[in-house]
Amino acid sequence: MIVVILMMVGLYMVMSRFNLVKKLIGLTIFQTSLFLLYISLGRIDEGTAPIIDASKDYAYSNPLPHVLILTAIVVGVATTALGLALVLRINDAFGTIEEDEVLLEKRRDYSQHKGGEG
Fold first, then answer.
1. Which among 18, 64, 98, 117 is least surrounded, fewest beta carbons within 10 Å?
2. How many CB atoms lie within 10 A of CB 42?
């Protein structure tokens, strides 16, 4: 249930906010919900670490989802850092990090550029 709540909160933040930093935070929350989903799928009730002991019969938890999520966390941190760097560049270029204002400024620049060539 927590996974679904976090997923919907992240999706809502991405779709409803115009601030680029808030969109990145929403993406990070959404990504965290997916991490929790994959880790919860790898868990087995009363499962032990996958250390094989031939004399006993145990239920083993699958370590693969945990390994994959470690890699995904590293990629997620790098992606978030790149996104924040892009937000800084957008702020330098346009003077704002509000998506609608950036798009308006781009349209204004495009129409001035197009009108000046003709």
1. 117
2. 16
**Nearest 5 degrees, angle CA 95-CA 12-CA 25?**
50
In 3D, which of 49, 45, 46 has the Cα closest to residue 66? Answer: 49
For residue 60, the SS3 value is: strand
- Could you identify the residue written with the tokens 């004399």? 55
Assess if residue 54 is contained within a domain: no
Q: Round to whole Å and give the CA distance between 69 and 64.
A: 9
Beta strands in 2-56 (DSSP E): none
CATH (domain of 35):
1.10.287.3510
Specify the DSSP class assigned to residue 96. -
